[in-house]
Amino acid sequence: MRLTILGGGGFRVPLVYGALLGDRGEGRVTEVVLHDVDAGRLDAVTRVLAEQAEGVADAPVVRATTDLDDALRGADFVFSAIRVGGLRGRAEDERVALAEGVLGQETVGAGGIAYGLRTVPVAVDIARRVARLAPDAWVINFTNPAGLVTEAMARYLGDRVIGICDSPVGLGRRVARALGADPGEAFVDYVGLNHLGWVRGLRVAGRDELPRLLADPARLGSFEEGRLFGPEWLRSLGAIPNEYLHYYYFNRETVRAYQEAERTRGAFLRDQQSRFYTDALRPGGSALRAWEDTRAEREATYMAENRESAGAGEREEEDLSGGYEQVALALMRAVARDERTTLILNVRNRSTLTALDAEAVIEVPCLVGADGAHPLATDPLPGHATGLVCSVKAVEREVLAAAESGSRETAVKAFALHPLVDSVSVARRLVDGYTAAHPELAYLK
Predict the structure, then answer these.
(1) Is the pLDDT of residue 182 over 70?
(2) How many CA atoms, within 13 angstroms, populate the side-chain half-sphere of residue 148?
(3) Burial of 188 by CB count in 10 Å (0-12 exposed, 13-18 middle, 19+ buried)?
(4) Can you give the pLDDT at residue 310?
(5) N or C: which end of the chain has fewer CB within 10 A?
(6) Cα–Cα nearest to 90, from 104, 73, 108
(7) Would you give the distance in Å from CA 32 to the centre of its chain?
(8) Is 77 helix (H, G, I), strand (E, B) or coil?
(9) Which H helix or E strand runs over 186?
């Protein structure tokens, strides 16, 4: 079975390959095709993968190419993890937004909109090519903003594109650990959009254990989200929010922390990964060791500004291990081998959340098998959560409309309608700043 990875020179590709190395049995991936527009990055990552495969019998064969059509032909699965504009673009997204006093995070607020406007046209082109060159392939989308990009691709691929994210997995794992439960035995009742969802229940042997956690301040304060949001706020919500909701619930504090930071997250990663790609290509050195050292630093500093503003302290050791590669592997196994399982994924709503239309991509538990991913029935969200989900989904729709039409006016509308952008005037200046910073946005007229 062939897996094509778009963004194959990306830093997290070795996580996916490492998961494949541990997979055995029928229907496993035997060939990996890496595609990237940057041949140097491809070379560096290929070296890391070669070291990973040393001593592993029947390791998947790796091939690299800069030809997109070549990469797609014959693919059984296409894993999309591209970054349009690179980390330079992410750093610019943050800079432009913070200069206006609003959030520039990669998937949330002004930064997420700018990233979406750059990415959607490229993602749509990929979807069209997949439909033409590999119509039977399943597309697994990890490209951010994951929900928005998955919805853009679904317009051409239907249910054969499925979005994944590691945030709900990590959240469910932490909630289960706080309750003393085995994460593998717990069903996580998680509902929302990508980076905008809530754990409303955690069932073990048919019993919802979340009320027990919410009633125990010590347990609530013992894990990442409890320290980030505070036990009192979690009890008020009656749920455990995805960590990205910290940008909404504590926006003023987070923006201030980002403005006062020595470097933004994007600038940090831009400089850090630049060093990695140089070190990985250094003759006589270990590309794998360079990658492992860089990854350890990257994971330890994740959402550092949020944790600092909340006084949440350092990340737990158990939270430094990632997780999206395991979601991707479980998804591929379920589809290729019909190993039916339940995963939290980004899929079309159908009738799951009545406040949204059938085509809206949401993030919910899904039953997955050879026929794809099907969202499970769920209770409605409370009013405050429904309002926020509907508001952000409306913004995503304006982003899709702007990307399709090239309308600058529609792009301004997308920014202005976002809950974290406080003025139409700010929205106009953001569009001016982003179009000046990003050649990829020249299509906006």
Answers:
(1) yes
(2) 33
(3) buried
(4) 67
(5) C
(6) 104
(7) 21
(8) strand
(9) strand 186-193
The residues, ordered by sequence, that sit 6+ positions from 351 with a Cβ below 8 Å of its Cβ are 358
Q: Are the C-beta atoms of residues 404 and 66 closer than 8 Å to each other?
A: no
Q: How far is residue 429's CA from residue 405's CA, in Å, rounded to a whole number?
A: 20
Contact assessment for residue 39 and residue 277, using Cβ atoms and an 8 Å cutoff: no
Dump the DSSP string for 297-336: HHHHTTTHHHHHHHT--SPPGGGGS--HHHHHHHHHHHHH
Tokens matching residue 419: 């809950």
Cβ-based burial of 342 (10 A; exposed 0-12, middle 13-18, buried ≥19): middle
Task: State whether residue 62 is helix, strand or coil.
Answer: strand
State the DSSP H helix or E strand holding residue 199, giving kind and residue range, or none if neither. Answer: strand 196-204
Rounded-to-integer distance, Cα 198 and Cα 190, Å: 5
8-state DSSP, 286: -
Facing residues of 343 across strands?
A: 366
Determine the residue type at 45: V
- What distance in Å separates the CA atoms of residue 309 and residue 257, rounded to the nearest whole number? 6
Are the C-beta atoms of residues 361 and 333 closer than 8 Å to each other?
no
Alpha helices in 134-250 (DSSP H): 146-157, 167-178, 210-214, 217-220, 224-229, 231-237, 246-249
Residue 176: closest CA among 243, 115, 222: 222
| Each residue's pLDDT tens digit, 278-314 | 999 999 999 999 999 999 988 877 776 775 666 766 6
CA distance 140 to 274: 27
Which of 140, 143, 85 lies closest to 114 in space, CA to CA? 85
Q: With beta carbons less than 8 A apart as the criterion, state whether 186 and 204 touch.
A: yes
> Residue 171: which residues within 8 A CB-CB, separation 6 or more?
188, 190, 199, 225, 240, 242, 243
Q: Per-residue DSSP letters for 94-118?
A: HHHHHHTTS---SSSHHHHHHHHHH
The pTM of the full predicted model, rounded to 2 decimals, is 0.94
Give pLDDT tens digits for 345-386: 999 999 999 999 999 999 999 999 999 999 999 999 999 999
